[in-house]
Amino acid sequence: MFSFGDARFFGSASSLRLNAPIVGTASDPLDGGYWLVASDGGVFAFGHAPFYGAATELLLSTRIVGIAATIIGSS
To answer: What per-residue string of b and e applies to 7-37 under the rule 16 or more CB within 10 Å gives b?
Structure first.
């Protein structure tokens, strides 16, 4: 994860042992944090971005390909 300009850096998943590649990132529109999502449904929250769980325990019919935050965050 890289930050440029005034973007804040809260961390990355580079030190974690991942089961699947990271396929997307989304910024938290309310708290300034961000999420990374892996193709197997793993979700990583950084900064003040809330964490509500991951889909890694679900039997997904296809791989995750991206992530998007709503105006009210990820709830």
So the answer is: eeeeeeeeeeeeeeebbebbbbeeeebbbbb
Position 1 confidence tier, pLDDT thresholds 50, 70, 90? low
Return the residue matching tokens 């990355």. 12
DSSP conformation letters of 22-68? EEEEEE-TTTS-EEEEETTS-EEEETT------STTS--SS------
Question: What does DSSP assign to residue 71?
Answer: T
Measure the CA–CA gap between 27 and 35, rounded to whole angstroms.
Answer: 6
The Cα 21–Cα 69 span in angstroms is 20
H or E segment and range at residue 75:
none
Q: Supply the pTM of this predicted model.
A: 0.71
pLDDT of residue 67: 86
